[in-house]
Please model this.
Amino acid sequence: MKATVLVSGGAGFIGSHVTVELANAGYNVLVADNMSNCDMTNYEGVCRILGYKPEFVQMDFCDPAACRSLFETHKIDAVIHFAAYKAVGESCSEPLMYYRNNLLSFINILEQSKLQGGCNVLFSSSATVYGETDKLPVTEQSPRQEATSPYGNTKQMCEDILRDSVKAYPGIKGIALRYFNPIGAHPSALIGELPRGVPNNLVPFITQTAIGKRECLSVFGNDYPTPDGTCLRDYIDIVDLAKAHVCAVSRMIDEKMKQSYEIFNIGTGRPVSVLELINSFEKVNNLKLNWKFAPRRSGDVVAIWADPTLAEKELGWKAERSVDDTLKAAWEWEKHIAGK
Ligand code: UFG
Model:
C-alpha cells in the first residue's frame, strides 16, 4: 500500500511543488491548508499537472480538534509541515500572531503524532537560523545565531520543539530541512509563487516589475563588502527543493535515518549577487528590467550560502537546475498568471 504523506500548507508555493513531487514518486498525498495566505490557484495547478485531485482538507492546524480529527480519520505515515506565516517584517509588528500561529500549529501536529504512537515529521526550516556569519559556506554544524525577527525565532523554536519531541516520544522521528532562497516555478507554469500584495522577496518583485505590475525594482544596498556591492544568496530552484523533501520523506519512511533527529541544508552551494540575478533574468528572458539602487534593507545579512555536502551524502540529493532555467520558469509563471 502507498504511504500517505500529510502536507500542511500544501496549497502554498513550496507545499504545492512538494505535493507534485511526492505524488510523482508514488506517495499518497493529503493536502491540508487553511487558505489564509493563498487561494486555490496552486492546488488547481497541482490537479492539472497530476491529472487527478489529491485529497484536500481545508483546516487550521491551530485548532486542536480539527487536527485530532484529521489524524484519527487518516493513517498518516509522514507529515511535512509548511503551514506558517512567513513575512519577516510583519512578524516584527505582529510577534504574538506569529508565535501563536507558527508554534501552536506545529505543537498540535506533534501532539497528534505522539497520540498515534509516532510519526515521521519533516519541518521546513530556514537558513535564517544561521544569521550573519563570517564562515561561509555554512554547514549544519555552523552555530545558530540569535534570531533577528520573531519569524526567524519561530523557525529556531520549532527546530528545538521537534528535537525535544523526538527525544521524549519514541516513535516520532524528525528531519529539519534548512532552505536557502527558494525561487522559480514548475516547468509547466501551472504552479508558482503568488505573493499577496507587494512582494517582499526578490524574484517575485523582479517578475512583477518585468510584467508591469510594479514600476521599478529597488536593489537594496550597493556598498556591501561583496564583489559587486550587493548581497549574496544561495538561490535554490523550487523543483529541486521539492525533490529534497521526497528524499527526506523516503529516508524516514524506509527507516534509513542514522539518528532520530537530523538536519540538512538545502541549497546549491553557489553564491549569487542581486545584480547577477537581475542580469541572468534579463539575459535568459531577453528583456530589460527597470531597476535602481536603494538604501540597504534593515535585517539583511551580507552573504549566506550553503554547504550542501551532507544532503548529497545522506539524502542522495543535489540541486540540478541552473539559475538561468529557474529564472525562465519564474517568468513563464508570471506570464501565465497575468494571462489568467
Ligand atoms: N532584494 C532587493 N530588492 C527587493 C527584494 C530583495 O534588492 O525588492 C534583495 C535583498 O536585499 C537580498 C536579496 O534580494 O539581498 C534576497 O532577498 P529576499 O527577500 O528574496 O530573500 P532573503 O534572503 O531576505 O529572505 C530569505 C527568505 C526568508 C528568510 C530569509 C533569511 O525568503 O524567508 O531568507 O534567511 F527568512
In short: The two ends are 38 Å apart (CA to CA).
